[in-house]
Amino acid sequence: MAETHETVFKSVQELANDNQVPEKYIHTQGSINSSSPLLDVPVVDLSLLTSPARQQELNKLQSGLKFCGCIQVINHGLADSFLDKVHEISKQFFALPAEEKLKYARTVDDIYGYGNDSVLSDKQKLDWTDRLYLNVFPEDIRNLKLWPQKPECFREVLEEYIKNMKLLSESLLKAMAASLNLEENCFLDQCGERGDMIARFNFYPPCPTPEVVLGVKPHADASAITILLQDKEVEGLQVLKDDQWFRVPIVPYGLLVNVGDQVEIMSNGIFKSPVHRVVTNADRERNTLAVFIMPDVTVGIGPVEKLINEERPRAYKDVKNYVELFFQSYQHGKRPIETAMICQEQD
C-alpha cells in the first residue's frame, strides 16, 4: 500500500541545511528584488488615543490604512521583555530536532499544526518557509495536541500573548471606526461574538537563491485585521503599491497591523487590504508571528451603511464565510475579494 502519511515531509529547514532548492520553489518570472524602496508606514502611538492628541493619531491611522493598508503601532501595552520571550519561544521551537517538531505535524487535509505548504497542484510554487499554524481563540476551538510542549514555557507565553492580542484587536477595530466618524463598535460587531483568532509562527531559513525564491507568495489576508510581530533584525516583508514592491521597515518592539479583505469590505473600500509577499535572505534566518483576527463565519459582513453614498456607492456585496470563498479563489490564482466586488455600471 502507498504511504499516505503527510507528516513525512521535507521541511524547508532541511532543504536549507542541504543547500537544496527544488524546482517547485523557483519563480521564473524575473528576478525578485529584495532591495526595493522603503515604504513610508505611519507609526501610530496607541497611548495617545486616550489623550488630547487622540484626533491626530486617529488621522494618522486613517491615512495609513487608506494609503498602504498598514500601520506600525507602538505603546501597545506589551513590554519589550515580553515580546523578546515571544520571539524566543518561536526560535527555540524551530531549533528543536525534527522528530520533536513532527509530534505537532499537520495532517494531509488540514492547515493546522507544524508543516509547510499543502501541495494542491503540480504547477504550484511553494513558499520557502516552515510554519506552525494554531487556532488560539475562542478557547474551545484550540487543539492542544498541536501546541508545543517544548520549549517548556511555549504554551504559557502564547496564552499571555493571545490575551493581549484580543484586547489590542478590539481597541484597534474601535479606533479604525472612530477614525471614519462611525459608531466605534460597528466593525467589532460585524466580527461577531465568536470571531476566531489564528496564530501563525513563521520560520524562514536562509535561502541559497533569494533572487528566485519567495518566503511567501503575493497575497492579501482573509482576516478582518492581521497583527504581525516582525523579526527585530531581518527585513523580509514587502507591500505592493502602485504596481511596485516596497520594503516594510522594522520598528523594534512595534507591531505591524494590516487591513484584511474583510475590513476592506466593511469600510466599503476606504481601507485597503494590501497585497504583500515575503522575500528570502541568503545569510540569515527570519522569525515572525502573525495573528489573524477573523470574523465569525456564521455572521454575514458587508459595507457599513453610513459609508455608502452617492460619491461612494456600495462597492461590495454582503458576504458570509469569506474564508471559504478566499481559499477557493486563491487556488485559482484570483484575488478573492474580487468575487465580493459589485461592478459599477458605466455611464
UniProtKB/TrEMBL annotation:
Superkingdom per UniProt: Eukaryota
InterPro entries linked: DIOX_N, IPNS-like_FE2OG_OXY, IPNS-like_sf, Oxoglu/Fe-dep_dioxygenase_dom, Plant_2OG-oxidoreductases
Pfam families tied to this protein: 2OG-FeII_Oxy, DIOX_N
Domain named Fe2OG dioxygenase: residues: 194-295
Keywords from the named record: Iron, Metal-binding, Oxidoreductase, Vitamin C
Alphabetical GO biological process terms: coumarin biosynthetic process; response to molecule of fungal origin
GO molecular function terms noted in the UniProt entry: 2-oxoglutarate-dependent dioxygenase activity; L-ascorbic acid binding; metal ion binding
Gene3D superfamilies: B-lactam Antibiotic, Isopenicillin N Synthase, Chain
Family affiliation: Belongs to the iron/ascorbate-dependent oxidoreductase family.
Name the UniProt record assigns to this protein: Fe2OG dioxygenase domain-containing protein
